[in-house]
Design a protein that fits this description.
The structure holds two protein chains of two kinds. Chain A is of the alpha+beta class. Chain A is built from four helices and nine strands; from the N terminus they run E-E-E-E-E-E-H-H-H-H-E-E-E. In chain A, the strands form four sheets. A three-stranded antiparallel beta sheet of chain A has the order 7-8-9. Chain A is globular. The model of chain A has no long low-confidence stretch (mean pLDDT 89). By secondary structure, chain B is α+β, with helices and mostly antiparallel strands. In chain B, strand 1 and strand 2 form a beta hairpin. Chain B is elongated. The chains are: A alpha+beta, B alpha+beta.
């Protein structure tokens, strides 16, 4: 399968054009990227949150609904190491749909702080006994203290 | 014509894109193509809704009374229709208190306060202000300005004003068959 490659930036996902052609990908990195950063970043992921992404309202396929606890926590949790565990749990919950639709057998995550107010999320998924890894570096916008 | 559901439009776009991209397996549920299809479906739904709205404005019965701005020009479709046929702009609605003469054929019962009276010509609904017994005694007693008459309040448009002002003086005859509306005050 192919998909237009979404590159993570401070301003959301961007499309890159090289020689007039959109850069493509196999789609797996997009899948995990949209799991972590899809939908409205003001959506808490709780039931009946009015900030939920508008296109979810009429979506009949649950896996297509865009809700991300990860990006919400990056706006609301202080950027301290003690919150990394909570952030990792949110990442795993967001990526659960990969297992739900049978895309990956296992999904694991590692969350670190490589620089000040920055978070790096590494996803490792096992598909047909092969491991695919993707890393996303994102600004941790909520400030400590 | 009915507006297709957003999900139907989205599914249609996804299937067309899949065909063009020669996808042999389904697109992942979270992919750029799916997101793009959703955004396009949202825009198309808006166009469907606006096209439906525009079509209804062709007919006076369904023309909107609310202003809409198109390319910087604000129009009210029903008012434009009125101008086209020489009806003029509508007058502002005002509260009115009217007196209704009721023909009493059977001298029993009453019209309760709060009862609603419909003027079929305009569709305006009037609300009875105070209860009135339907007997001839009250009808024959002109000592009180409202005796034997039902006072109604309501909002009247220019169309109803025309009907109201054209009526003749009040009649208290028991054999009168027409119900008359007269303006008491505005």
């Amino acid at each position: 399968m192919t998909d237009v490659l979404l590159t993570n930036t401070a301003d959301g996902g961007e499309i890159s054009y090289v020689n007039g052609q959109a850069q493509m990908s196999d789609g797996l990195d997009n899948f995990f990227y949209l799991c972590l950063f899809g939908g409205n970043e003001q959506d808490s992921g709780l039931a009946n949150d009015p900030a939920e992404y508008w296109a979810n309202k009429d979506e009949t396929t649950p896996a297509r609904k865009m809700r991300s606890e990860t990006q919400f926590l990056l706006r609301s949790l202080p950027s301290v190491s003690s919150n990394l565990t909570r952030l990792r749990d949110a990442v795993l919950r967001d990526c659960q749909s990969a297992k739900d639709i049978g895309l990956a057998e296992t999904v694991d995550a590692r969350v670190t702080i490589p620089a000040l107010n920055t978070v790096k999320i590494e996803i490792a998924g096992t598909i047909n006994d092969k491991t695919f890894s993707y890393a996303f570096t994102e600004a941790w916008r909520a400030r400590a203290g | 014509m009915s507006i297709p559901k957003l999900s139907d439009i989205k599914d249609s776009i996804i299937s067309q894109l899949s065909l063009k991209l020669s996808q042999t397996i389904p697109l992942l549920d979270k992919s750029f193509t799916i997101v793009q299809a959703g955004a396009l479906a949202g825009q198309l739904t808006q166009l469907y809704k606006y096209a439906g709205f525009s079509f209804l404005q062709l007919f006076v019965k369904y023309a909107s009374t609310k202003g809409t701005t198109v390319n910087g020009k604000t129009i009210t479709p029903l008012v434009e229709w009125g101008r086209l046929v020489g009806a003029g702009d509508p007058l502002a609605a005002e509260r009115a208190e009217l007196v209704v003469d009721v023909t009493v054929l059977t001298q029993t019962g009453s019209i309760a306060a709060g009862a609603q009276l419909l003027f079929p010509a305009t569709g305006v609904v009037y609300v009875v202000k105070a209860a009135v017994a339907l007997d001839a005694r009250q009808c024959r007693s002109p000592s009180s300005p409202t005796a034997g008459k039902t006072v109604a309040t309501g909002r009247e448009t220019s169309a109803t004003s025309k009907s109201v002002t054209s009526c003749s003086s009040r009649t208290h005859s028991r054999t009168s068959r027409a119900m008359r509306l007269c303006r008491v005050s505005r």
